[in-house]
Fold:
Amino acid sequence: MRKIIAICGDSKIEKDGDKYKFAFSVGKALVDNGYRLQSGGLGGVMEAAFAGAKSSEKYKEGDTVAIIPSFDRTMHNEYADIVISTGLDMMRNAIVANADAVIAIGGGSGTLSEIAFAWPMMRLIMACNCVDGWSSKVADTRMDQRIRYPEIPEDKVFGVSNADEVIEILDKYADKYNKFHKGIVIDL
Amino acid sequence: MRKIIAICGDSKIEKDGDKYKFAFSVGKALVDNGYRLQSGGLGGVMEAAFAGAKSSEKYKEGDTVAIIPSFDRTMHNEYADIVISTGLDMMRNAIVANADAVIAIGGGSGTLSEIAFAWPMMRLIMACNCVDGWSSKVADTRMDQRIRYPEIPEDKVFGVSNADEVIEILDKYADKYNKFHKGIVIDL
Amino acid sequence: MRKIIAICGDSKIEKDGDKYKFAFSVGKALVDNGYRLQSGGLGGVMEAAFAGAKSSEKYKEGDTVAIIPSFDRTMHNEYADIVISTGLDMMRNAIVANADAVIAIGGGSGTLSEIAFAWPMMRLIMACNCVDGWSSKVADTRMDQRIRYPEIPEDKVFGVSNADEVIEILDKYADKYNKFHKGIVIDL
Amino acid sequence: MRKIIAICGDSKIEKDGDKYKFAFSVGKALVDNGYRLQSGGLGGVMEAAFAGAKSSEKYKEGDTVAIIPSFDRTMHNEYADIVISTGLDMMRNAIVANADAVIAIGGGSGTLSEIAFAWPMMRLIMACNCVDGWSSKVADTRMDQRIRYPEIPEDKVFGVSNADEVIEILDKYADKYNKFHKGIVIDL
Structure:
């Protein structure tokens, strides 16, 4: 099964600004390398990444999955192929974040919640370190003191500054970050 | 954008029994006619429909979307192409049910909850009337007294007894059942 | 710890009609007998039961818990003491239904979803059999074929026609309906 | 209606350490001043605050509300009076955070998710600035650049170092932080 990579970040960004370019290039690179994308399905970084995905020569219809906050299936950006209309408002961030890997690009508190969920969900997390917002603040840090993968001592939110680095991290780690005991995050 | 049709029903069924055959044929017919499928991603009817989808000559990778109860992305049937790991346990039924149309095949209380959600979500609902379980009990009835679509006085849970009837109902109604005020079910 | 009983039913009912009277008397009887109430926190049956609770001589502030669909903490009926603002829209029905026992009074598809959730959640369920709506349709039936409590062969949705019967059922069964393996409904 | 204040923080702490003492004293002070408490209902800071609440002379049964991750109603600390069993696992953090005000005490990524949700939910947020963990990292900062309350230019995550400061902030701000347009966080 093809892996799905989540893209998180600001829902409003400058067209053709740094965040747009970064998200677009990452979206394209992901599809170039056989991955599918999921995001919150709205504007900004989410839209830029999906637009990039569609610019790939390897793009196939179905490669962009929008996990939207509304029950209204029409509330998504124009590059979404598949819409999952959750009705969960902000809580859908947890579902977005629970992908095979997560890439944060800038972002306010919504993006931060996605990183904060992805960490205890044991997910591989990358964060763009060259734009403003939460992604650069948490790049190359650990979100808390838990040892997630004893066999991966370098585990952290991996800072990335371009699409090539994203693919390198995925090549190196995507298969290793797959531990999920019992399907429950909070172990009682 | 291709429409996504939800398949709901028993998670444990007899292989090659009536429910299996019905779900398989509906899954195949849906892909034959250009639809994508979503389900709860587990066994029984959910698996049979996905298997049918994959047997279609028009099947393309990405046509089966599993919206699973666990956060564990490996807990799905073998025919799922795309996994949305919700962590919502039974509450994920609401997301499954919020598709462009819903088809119930047999089913216990889980399936009933999906029908009960799809109705106020204003969705087009079909229910197999020739197998045991909740689908035949609610086929050709209204789930409550609300007038969902004044312009569709025949609105109800449409009973269906074979895949051709499913496609007929979709051809006739799929574009009409798209009203969703404000993205909220419970209007305060 | 005092048990919490969920009241489900129509959100719009006639003031002083049968459903209002039934819900009011049940709400009063529950507090008279030491129980706390929870509901979806809106109008109709939910409001009537809370009003009844407050009419009990044993009522103490805190006895009525409103589990509301909105994130907006002001969207509740006037008899609510404690507001849990879920933001889950209709999905909050699953949380309402997951009480120590559930009593359905009339109801459309929303109430039906609560019964449909309470059943696999292993909850003690009562349904008013003397008003119209889903409660009388499912009274004295099983929601599906699963054997929930082998040691309680008479397990079903218990039909009730007055507040005394509600208290009798609670006296007899409330302590027995407490089995919940692993905190998960859908056992994978 | 009495306001409900959410307490967030580490689920495992040293008994009688700084976090325990802080949470206990805040819990007590909140009940002393007429507030009710809610938390995730588990151990550590959540338990310490509830224990403090119960030590208040003004404590009444019903003052501690546990919003737990499981559907299993028994999975809560011993000081909980009211249990809301959500089945939402970590996503219940959003409901915990949507209180009349939120107080973070230390905390790992789970606590961070609660702060990250409380911010766009427009809630009054306090964070203990004298213990390790996320609360001191975000104390006296804004979670992102949005102007939440133009009429409160000093809006931020208010750093607090003792229970008196918590009560001062509540006295000053609790009534002002009550803006919640349309009950939706993500405005589409």
Q: What stands out?
A: The interface with chain A takes residues 42, 69-70, 72, 75, 88-91, 94, 107-110, 112-113, 115-117, 119-121, 133-134, 143-146, 184-186, 188 of chain D (CB under 8 Å). Residues 118 and 160 of chain D are 17 Å apart (CA to CA). The mean pLDDT of chain D is 94.
